[in-house]
Amino acid sequence: MMMIECKSDAKSRPSKEYPYFLFDPENNVYYPFQFFKTEAERDEAAANAIREYLDQDFGWNEEVVGVFVGVVTGVAAQTDVRYPVGELDEGRCDGVGQYWPEDVEYTCNYTIQPLSSENEPEGEPKLFLSTLWRLKNEAH
Length: 140
Fold this sequence. Notes:
It is a single chain. The protein has helices spanning 39-51, 129-139, and strands spanning 20-23, 33-36, 54-55, 59-60, 68-71, 74-82, 107-114. The protein is of the alpha+beta class. The chain has two domains: 1-73 and 115-140, no CATH class; 75-111, no CATH class. Strands 2-1-5 form a three-stranded antiparallel beta sheet, with helices on one face. Strand 3 and strand 4 form a beta hairpin. The longest helix is centred in the first third of the chain and has 13 residues, at 39-51. It is elongated and about 75 Å long.
């Protein structure tokens, strides 16, 4: 099966500007999610990806059912960020008695928040190999 490269107008992370996604586990092993500006661009990429699963001699690869598309409406984002109140004492407690382990600058929670320019994921995504292994092995 031929590897399909991420199109130049696709991104490896969602953003407010790139919310439409294609998941293609076989043709993009390391970064199976691709994000697009428009639904039409995503659908064109999906149609191309699906065609890669057809072998002229052997027919359809059953893994084609693993291809799916969608739109990102929310992402995990920090909420309830808390910093130490005042200076830490010798026991590493702040002004209200909260213990702060060494190298911990703040505490927070994560919840799904609407995708916006303030909470867009940053940097390159981590490899999805462990996720792919789990998905493939759960399917069998």
